[in-house]
Specification:
The chain has helices at about 1-45, 60-65, 70-95, 95-105, 110-120, 120-125, 140-145, 150-165, 170-180, 190-195, 200-215, 235-240, 245-250, 270, 285-295, and strands at about 50, 55, 220-225, 240-245, 280-285. It is mostly helical. The protein has two domains: about 1-205, no CATH class; about 220-300, no CATH class.
């Protein structure tokens, strides 16, 4: 048993390590996108604005020029965001195979596990990809690709700069800080992906993981992931312990250490775990193994 647990820990570490590498690569690419957005706005939009004595004039014509940002983002999508989305979608679809490794390692039927891993219809529907791997309009990845929230943030900054008659130098400095970030604040695109992409990766992993559990008729799991300095009390209490799916569904929403209690009614324990940015996994196990591990927990 101890050898198996060590193998599982190593598998988790490998999953975490690969995800961290993915985030580092994506954020590096997104910073290049931020630089392109800044460069194109300064090159394509700023010369169109009416400026007098170094001050951006508050005119209807200037306000209308803010819509050029839509074209800038469309060009960025086609030129630079498309390969980033492609890499991320491939990483999301690979989750099924990574989860399958765990179930094969822990002794479940090879043919059944491989069949579940190959059935990516649920995974594709969750992330918004059709059978050909193309983005589904209005789906999760399509929305991420369009970067609407980031675009609106930049557009609002421009409109505010015009309305308040900002100086050009001040405007450009503020625009740079907004788009590319500072030491204290992340840039527009990196911040957008941290909010809407990276936590989604963990939730997609658990959607697929739950699919395996349901197909294999598993009712018990180990709350795995270890403890780090930023671990929440909710997760510290559960780390390494065995739970049934019914215990999680019944008890976790009432846990006093669950964050963001005002939205507890919409909380999905088997997918969200400790909620946003939670790094823990649910490692589904057989009933026999659950009983064995429970006995260890209780010192029997």
């Amino acid at each position: 048993m101890e050898e198996l647990l060590q193998s599982i820990r190593e598998w988790i570490e490998g999953f975490d390590r690969d995800f961290e590498s993915l985030k580092i690569k994506l954020e590096k690419d997104l910073r290049k996108v931020e630089a392109s957005v800044l460069r194109r706005i300064i090159a394509d939009i700023l010369p169109l604005l009416k400026i007098e004595d170094g001050i951006i004039k508050n005119t209807v014509t200037n306000m209308a020029k803010a819509n050029v940002i839509d074209r800038v983002f469309l060009e960025i999508q086609a030129d630079e965001l498309k390969p980033i989305i492609q890499a991320f979608s491939e990483a999301l679809l690979s989750i099924s195979g990574r989860n399958a490794e765990y179930y094969l390692m822990t002794g479940f039927d090879t043919a059944k596990v491989n069949a579940i891993a190959k059935d990516t219809a649920l995974l594709r529907s969750v992330v918004g990809l059709d059978e050909k791997g193309e983005l589904i309009k209005g789906g999760y990845l399509d929305s991420l690709f369009k970067s609407e929230a980031a675009k609106q943030e930049v557009k609002q900054y421009l409109l505010t700069g015009i309305a308040t008659k900002q100086g050009v130098n001040q405007f450009q400095k503020g625009l740079k800080n907004l788009i590319e970030g500072t030491k204290e604040v992340e840039g527009a695109m990196v911040g957008y992906w941290r909010r809407y992409a990276f936590d989604q990766y963990a939730q997609v992993r658990e959607v697929n993981n739950l699919h395996f559990a349901q197909e294999l008729n598993l009712k018990y799991f180990v709350y795995q992931g270890g403890i780090i300095p930023t671990s929440r009390d909710f997760c510290k209490k559960k780390n390494g312990r065995v739970f049934s799916d019914q215990e999680a569904l019944k008890d976790w929403p009432k846990d006093p250490d669950l964050i963001d209690k005002k939205t507890a009614a919409s909380y999905r324990p088997l997918l969200e775990r400790g909620r946003y940015n939670c790094r823990h996994f649910l490692m589904w196990i057989s009933e026999d193994r659950a009983k064995e591990l429970k006995q260890r927990e209780n010192g029997e």
